[in-house]
Amino acid sequence: MSGRVRIVDVASLAGVSTATVSRALSAPETVGRATRDRVMEAVRATGYRVNGAARDLRQQRARSLLILAPNLANTFFSRIFSAIQEEASAAGLAVQISDSRIGREKLVSLGYDGRADGIVLLDGAIDPDVVNGWRLPMIQLCEWNEAYRAPRIGIDNAAAARMAVEHLADLCHRSVLHVSGPDGNVLAVTRREGFSDGVAARGIAGTTLAGDFTLEAGACAARRWAELRPRPTGVFCASDECALGFISECAALGFGVPDDVSVVGFDDIDFAHRFLPALTTIRQPREALGRAAAKALVNLLGLAQVADPGDPAIAPTIVVRSSTAPPPTDDSRVATITLD
Amino acid sequence: MSGRVRIVDVASLAGVSTATVSRALSAPETVGRATRDRVMEAVRATGYRVNGAARDLRQQRARSLLILAPNLANTFFSRIFSAIQEEASAAGLAVQISDSRIGREKLVSLGYDGRADGIVLLDGAIDPDVVNGWRLPMIQLCEWNEAYRAPRIGIDNAAAARMAVEHLADLCHRSVLHVSGPDGNVLAVTRREGFSDGVAARGIAGTTLAGDFTLEAGACAARRWAELRPRPTGVFCASDECALGFISECAALGFGVPDDVSVVGFDDIDFAHRFLPALTTIRQPREALGRAAAKALVNLLGLAQVADPGDPAIAPTIVVRSSTAPPPTDDSRVATITLD
DNA sequence: CTGAAAGCGCTTACAG
DNA sequence: CTGAAAGCGCTTACAG
Questions:
Q1: Are A248 and A198 part of one and the same domain?
Q2: Long-range contacts at A223-230 (CB < 8 A, ≥ 24 apart)
Q3: B77 has a chain A CB within 8 A of its CB
Q4: Best of A7, A64, A106, A115 to disrupt the B interface by mutation (most B CBs within 10 Å)?
Q5: Which residues form a coiled coil (chains A, B) (predicted)?
Q6: Under 8 Å between Cβ of B192 and B178
Q7: Contact status, residue A235 vs residue A246, Cβ threshold 8 Å
Q8: In a domain, B170, yes or no
Q9: Is there a single domain that holds both residue A42 and residue A90?
Q10: CA B100 → C1' C8, Å?
Q11: Are residues A270 and A293 in the same domain?
Q12: Are residues B207 and B306 in the same domain?
């Protein structure tokens, strides 16, 4: 596990105590010049590197952040992880990741085993007793749970959903469908509320179908949408994956986007601008979110080098591309089918 | 960092030594029934949990795996990470991730600081001196470097590339383009070799354009392809991202896939089957790869609970979808432009 | 400026 | 079956 050579080896080679070696390495200015040179030479000669595990135990910290996410395979997290890791690394912290669905016992241990200084929580569905039982600084990111005693970072999901509705309404859609996230999920609930508010504010018709953010949920929703009478001409999906699944299945069903139906997504994942059609979506600035969470946590740990990071404006924006357009002017298709 | 209560607290509450508490927890059968009950009661009463950091130092291990990847934001890794984490968790190991481009000094430390028992390397471009300097069990996954002294897990990239060419040739394409990865990259080199071999074996024309696996590289390649005379009718991209970028840009340029040009990707990322058109691609079983790497590393650490995991066949396969078809029979478009 | 000693929180031979 | 003691590899008051 550790490299072979320990601090005592360096000390004896340099003819000093381990205390001096330790100081020469971590606070060189407190050691006499000649001694320091001797120690450094011994360090070089032996290839010594401090054993972080031992140092951490002694200093009662872990120099490590733990990221907890509901599904590590979800590509939505990639950019967030990379941003967190960058900030953590800049603050001298390692990053540990774990799926938050590993089972209660393992989960409890994670926050208790002295191997993390703080936690970034991307899951709002963990038992609050577990979360609040951890005695570690925590930040909730993107998802949240009112019951967790930890600050939150994320976008205004209701406002974001309203933006999607606004966009569709501005395009003159009078009937819109929302393919939401799963019932228990805070993001799903909040976006759904924003959708309802937006629809009410514009006086247009709104329907909701529960999905689960996935490609397949979107595809499934497209099949259900095709059976609706009249068919909503605008669709707001609670995730880009869902939107892409919806559009893809529409194509299979013979409907074109945006000719037959307009679709707006949520997240602005990397592929969104390269999809065919390029996806109109609500942009969630994932890198900024990850960075902000990491910085906030570093602050909580009292390790901040700089002053307050100055809240980077983490506001959702709508990016309009090619998957939305005014509703079809020719209602023949709908009319024909309705008359059958 | 640690929970408040330590093993001594439990010991004194139960009226036993810390040694007994330790045994009662980790080897209950070695402790008298009455004593054990008393200890367990004290554990319950205090809410004691062992401090993993202390245990690790004592036992000279870290109970942790380190994953090193060239860019954590790359969504290709998501499923690999999740598979590794699952296997690691099953073996009682935590997982630490780091970008492998964090700078030489930090990188060296990572393998030396006693906080990882083993490493999964997804980057073949790290200085071999750094890698071989680590005294930890390692596994190379997907990417590799001959100079690293560590076993490799991955698919046969040359064979995979040949499969792509075979498919195109079977469809009667006589001229194919390969959009490769960057020059220094092993995967790029190996796939390019497979491409060349395949093309030679089938006696068809092959051209190569260097890219870098990204969406934008694919888009850029599409622009270059459009200027080629004659235009290859089949294209093999070294990654799905690249292929999607290529197809997307083709659409912008007024070319249809597969009507004007057939495109095959590499990886079979999650979106591949939902893209429009659904992408024909070489499937790289990322979950199996991650799992195999984690298992191999666990074996190397001597922690395997089960016998040999039995090599799960990690063979690439081609999955044929809608982005490939026979070349256009009508050569008018090419002819017309050529005549200009 | 430097060293002897204690201690971070555990586990594990070694005795009994 | 249980305990006293050493020790994992460091750092850090405390003296001098």
A1: yes
A2: A223/A249, A223/A253, A225/A177, A225/A250, A225/A261, A226/A250, A226/A253, A226/A255, A228/A177, A229/A334, A229/A337, A229/A338, A230/A175, A230/A334, A230/A338
A3: yes
A4: A115
A5: none
A6: yes
A7: yes
A8: yes
A9: no
A10: 31
A11: no
A12: no
A255 near B255, Cβ under 8 Å?
no
* pLDDT tens, residue order, chain A (340 aa): 335 899 999 999 999 999 999 999 999 999 999 999 999 999 999 999 999 999 999 999 999 999 999 999 999 999 999 999 999 999 999 999 999 999 999 999 999 888 999 999 999 999 999 999 999 999 999 999 999 999 999 999 999 999 999 999 999 999 999 999 999 999 999 999 999 999 999 999 999 999 999 999 999 999 999 999 999 999 999 999 999 999 999 999 999 999 999 999 999 999 999 999 999 999 999 999 999 999 999 999 987 655 455 555 689 999 999 999 999 985 544 444 444 3
Residues B165 and B239 in one domain: yes
Strand D footprint, Cβ within 7 Å:
A 2, 6-8, 18-19, 21-23, 25-26, 48, 50-51, 54-55, 57-59; B 15-20, 23, 30-32, 34-36, 54, 57-58, 60, 114
Nearest to A113 among B53, B98, B278 (CB): B53
Distance A21 CA to C12 C1' (A): 29
Residue with tokens 């946590």: A297
Residue A54 is nearest to which of B57, B98, B108, comparing CB atoms? B57
Query: In a 3-state reduction of DSSP, which class is residue B206?
Result: strand
Range of the domain at A42: 7-58
Question: Does residue A195 sit in the same domain as residue A332?
Answer: yes
